[in-house]
# Entry
Amino acid sequence: MNAPLDLRAFDLEALAGQIREARGVAHKRDIDAVVGRLGLGSRHDAVAVGDDCAAIPDGEGHLLFAIEGFLEGFVAADPYFAGYCGIMVNLSDVAAMGGRPLAVVDALWSRDAGAADPILAGLSDAAALYGVPIVGGHTNTRAGAGNLAVAILGRAGPRLLTSFDAAPGDDLVAAIDLRGRFREPHPYWDASTGAPGGRLRGDLALLPGLAEDGLCHAAKDISMAGIVGTALMLLECSGVGGLIDLDAIPRPDHVPLARWLTAFPSFGYLLSLRPDRTPAVLARFAERGIAAARIGGLDASRVARVRDRGGDEAVVWDFQASPLIGCGRDGAGAAS
# Structure
């Protein structure tokens, strides 16, 4: 459920600035430099570069390929959850493009076998819950510090959900599993550990179902950049702008808005779709107990704005003035 906004509790311009300067958004800005250094284009050999996964045409569908790396501090502070997230976030990337997972591999560095054990336990438990096999990788238990990266292979049909196909006039929908809690003191909203595996697998299957049934054409999973930060990446890739209604964002009653906007949910997606399809999409999430709502609309302005309950607006990003990740229809691209 949504907690009503107390308009006295924050300054909208300050909140927009907080979103721009958030650590998760800053990390996404690093992508822009990689774009230039590698000379990547927004399209490379028919593969869109800058999406949640590389989508490689294969027969009548697509192979999906993605990788996630984890900061040393996260691995050191919560090694079990770091391993668990190695599976979970990669599955989220595949689902965000309308695909289903095939297998994962991992690359693990640790000081010794004892330090590696909780990471491996997290990987093993998540793989079992989500029903995806770990088929290989690289291991070094004589390293100076703990590091982890996990890659995934998936498959999607001919209808992809992409970051490049949001269009002016679309509704912007957020779908988030609120049946969780923060892993304090971190910004990770965990609605996955302890949940039944069948429910987790069924929830992820919603996304490829939407793609296959033609109900949605663009999506991104909500990343460490947060809800609005993830929307920025979607808008930039598609070359559009939009207005987000902060009061409409699904949010647990007890969580302050400012914290929720920088949270990383274990199940969270932004979807861009035609307004006539919104009721059917919201109903599918509701059937599985997942909070979903229309949180705004897209336009041709190439400016991302937020609006509070009183109707005031603030600009979060103007893509005509400055890129965020450097990916888009008229620019370069990089892995997200």
Q: What stands out?
A: The chain has two domains: 12-39+162-318, 54-156. The longest strand covers residues 99-109. The chain has ten helices and 17 strands.
